[in-house]
Amino acid sequence: MDIRVAKTAGFCFGVARAVDRAYQCAEETGKAYCTLGPIIHNAQVVDDLAKKGVRVVQTIDELADNETVIIRTHGVPKQIYQELEAKGIPYVDLTCPFVKKIHTLVSRHHEDGCRILIIGDSQHPEVIGINGWCDNSATIIENLEQAESLTPTSEKVCIVAQTTFNKNIYKKIIFFLKKTCQNTVIFDTICNATEERQAESQMLAKEVDVMLVLGGQNSSNTQKLYQICSSVCSEAYCAETIDALGDLKQFQNKRVGITAGASTPAVIIKEAINKMENQDKDFATLLEESLKSINSGDVVTGTVIEVGPTEVIVDLGVKQDGVIPASEISDDPNLTPEDIVKVGDEIQGYVVRVNDVEGKITLSKKRLDSFKTWEAIETARENGDILEGKVDGVVNGGIIVTYKSFRVFVPASLANDRYLTDLNELVGKVVPFKILDLNKSRRRIVGNIKTVLVAQKQELEKAFWEAAEVGKKYTGIVKSLTSFGAFVDIGGVDGLVHISELSWARIKHPSDVVKVGDSIEVYIKDIAEDTKKISLGYKNPLENPWEIAKSKLNVGDVVSAKIVRMLPFGAFAEIMPTVDGLIHISQIANKRIGKPQDELTIGQEVDVKIVDIDWENKKIALSIRALLPEPEVVAPAAEEAPAAEEEPTSYTEEVVNTIGDAVEAPATEK
Ligand code: SF4
Question: Does the domain at residues 285-369 carry the CATH identifier 2.40.50.140?
Answer without folding.
Answer: yes
